[in-house]
Structures are given as structure tokens and as C-alpha cells.
Amino acid sequence: MAVAVVSFTVNKDSLFWALQAGGQGFEF
Questions:
Q1: What are residue 17's phi and psi, to 5 degrees?
Q2: 16 in Cβ contact with 26 (< 8 Å)
Q3: What is the spatial distance between Cα 19 and Cα 3, in angstroms, rounded to a whole number?
Q4: Can you give the three-state secondary structure of the chain, one letter per residue?
Q5: Are residues 21 and 28 in contact, defined by beta-carbon separation less than 8 angstroms?
């Protein structure tokens, strides 16, 4: 179940992290 939660969180936040990475110059 934990894996499913992590996967869901990663998918949900992928766009958020992409925006953060683009603004700060990091790569995820």
C-alpha cells in the first residue's frame, strides 16, 4: 500500500516538481 501511495504522490506532484526544478535549475 505504501508503494501505491508513493507512486500516486509522485505522479500528482510531478508537474509541481517540474515547475520548481525549472525555477531553481534542478533536475529530477
A1: -65, -35
A2: no
A3: 24
A4: CHHHHHHHHHHHHHHHHHHHHHHHCCCC
A5: yes
pLDDT in tens, 1-28: 577 666 667 666 777 777 776 666 555 5
Q: 18 is written with which cell numbers?
A: 517540474
Instruction: Yes or no: say if 26 and 20 are a contact pair by the CB < 8 Å rule.
Output: yes
- The 10 Å CB-count burial string (b at 16+, else e) for 15-28 is eeeeeeeeeeeeee
Supply the pLDDT for residue 5: 65
